[in-house]
Design goal:
The protein is mainly alpha-helical. Helices cover 53% and strands 6% of the residues. The chain is built from 18 helices and 9 strands. Strand 8 and strand 9 form a beta hairpin.
Length: 511
């Protein structure tokens, strides 16, 4: 991973651009002098509250339903360590490294704002682990999404005290050993600090932001791939005319239509309606409306995630300027849960319409005279037949995954926590749907590129010709039946990384 100039977290937090620099490009992180002062001031305020022997949830009380149990000061340190140990019971495959880095960064942003009451030492050790590449092993399943992402974040917190496991320099190690190798001393938790580490929405938000990045690459790629299919099927360009978009003035619809016009400009295979072909099928004609609606949804989802990225979401929160401590509900993941369910639907539709275009490319009754299943030897060879089957299977699976997780709730903690968001489930499902969409679009792109083999290269638009050449570096032309699994995966990985619309990026395979 390349190293970039340090990202400084200030009172405003971070931008999505700096988030990506840290998570994907290895930029180091620090916090501003003002944030440092805020953290110190908030801790001093908390210690003053404790000296006055005031009761503060999770500081000198039990947790959840046990909040009525008031504990003596001598129990404070054990209370925080026991909290991490007892809550670190998530299960399932570990989150990918980029999600863990995102979780660490987002937790750091939240704590650095100076409303959580942790010591500066906690902020520094979290920063140092992120910068040194000590990544906690965090199982991906087990969060209800309120009181935040308790179980996943507990695994993150355990690493900071030298317990649990961590990935360091490519090796999975006991956290104590990983910290030692990185020259980082484990912290000894004090009042409030265990709770401040685990109470928040950083797991669902981390998955949400990394998925949103891929989803935006998907929608951009979908426009390009649709244009290639339209050209391969001798499509009609009238539906993409600017006047049509002006009278239904969604900016995202207009943006998609403009994209299609740009990609198809100069092609000798597309044109206006004619007596023998007045209209194309919806999967070609309605691309601006369908892709545009998904893009509009993603823009809204991004707004939600960018607010959450720079929010303080633990409980209780301390406000030194006002001299107040509040127990509230900022840990509740409902805003992210709804956004992730929305993303699931928006990206599912991009895959759904893509699969319909693939069907038109391979079906001899619909593909404008192209060979059946895009093979000159149909019958003895199956050509692209089963690629469409795979796309159909993934689209069908997406329909199941797109069922909203946020409409479900199971009470917990003896009914004290009686409404939860299931936001992390929604985020994980959104990530899976987005991966599927990458595969489905890769299949359409393979078929569209193969369909263009029956066109004269000089008559293609300059834009599609460039994409054709890019695809051929990853997927050779069809000569005889072969397995396409690895080629679909490689092409999908490139699409999800934004390489289709930025060929300068290096081509890589999905891990």
């Amino acid at each position: 991973m390349m190293s970039y100039a340090s990202v400084v977290i200030d009172e405003e937090g971070i931008t999505f651009e700096t988030f990506c620099r840290v998570v994907y490009q290895g930029a180091s992180v620090d916090i501003s002098e003002r944030c440092t002062a805020n953290v110190v001031k908030c801790r001093e305020f908390l210690e003053g509250v404790l000296r006055e022997q005031k009761t503060v949830y999770g500081v000198n009380t039990g947790f959840g339903k046990l909040s009525s149990v008031v504990l003596p000061e001598a129990y404070s340190e054990a209370l925080q360590v026991n909290l991490l140990r007892s809550h670190a019971c998530a299960v399932g495959e570990p989150f990918p490294m980029e999600v863990v880095r995102a979780m660490m960064l987002l937790r750091l942003v939240s704590l650095a704002r100076g409303f959580s009451g942790v010591r500066l030492e906690i902020v520094h050790v979290l920063r140092d682990c992120l910068n040194a590449g000590v990544y906690p092993i965090i199982p991906s399943k087990g969060s209800l999404g309120a009181s935040g992402d308790l179980a996943p974040l507990a695994h993150l917190g355990l690493c900071l005290i030298g317990e649990g496991e961590a990935l360091y320099e490519g090796r999975r190690l006991p956290a104590q050993e990983a910290l030692l190798l990185a020259g980082i001393h484990p912290v000894v938790l004090q009042a409030k600090e265990g709770l401040a580490l685990i109470n928040g929405t950083q797991a669902m938000t981390a998955v949400g932001l990394t998925t949103y990045r891929q989803a935006m690459a998907v929608v951009r790629a979908a426009n390009t791939i649709a244009a290639m299919t339209i050209e391969a099927l001798n499509g009609i360009v009238d539906p993409f005319a600017d006047p049509i978009q002006r009278v239904r003035p969604y900016p995202e619809q207009a943006s998609v239509a403009k994209d299609l016009r740009t990609h198809l400009d100069g092609s000798q295979y597309v044109g206006a309606a004619r007596p023998d072909k007045v209209q194309d099928a919806y999967s070609l004609r309605c691309v601006p409306q369908v892709h545009g609606a998904s893009l509009r949804a993603l823009n809204h989802i991004g707004e939600t995630l960018f607010i959450e990225m720079n929010s303080t979401t633990d409980n209780p929160l301390l406000f030194p300027e006002e001299g107040l401590v509040y127990s509230g509900g900022n840990f509740h993941g409902q805003p992210v849960a709804l956004a992730m369910d929305y993303l699931k639907i928006a990206v599912s539709e991009l895959a759904s319409i893509s699969e319909r275009r693939t069907e038109r490319l391979v079906n001899p009754q619909l593909n404008e005279g192209l060979p059946a299943f895009l093979t000159p030897d149909a019958g003895r060879s199956s050509g692209m037949m089963i690629l469409q089957y795979v796309a159909a299977s993934l689209v069908s699976e997406n329909k199941v995954l797109a069922h909203p997780a946020s409409v479900d709730s199971i009470p917990s903690s003896a009914n004290q926590e009686d409404h939860v968001s299931m936001g992390t489930i929604a985020a994980r499902q959104a990530a899976q749907i987005t991966q599927h969409a990458g595969d489905v679009l890769a299949i359409e792109l393979i078929c569209a590129t193969q369909a263009l083999e029956w066109k004269e290269r000089a008559k293609l638009s300059p834009a599609t010709r460039k994409v054709y050449e890019w695809v051929r570096k990853l997927v050779p032309s069809y000569v005889a039946d072969r397995s396409y699994s690895k080629e679909i995966e490689n092409l999908a990985a490139a699409i999800l990384e934004g390489q289709l619309n930025d060929p300068a990026k290096a081509v890589g395979s999905r891990p």
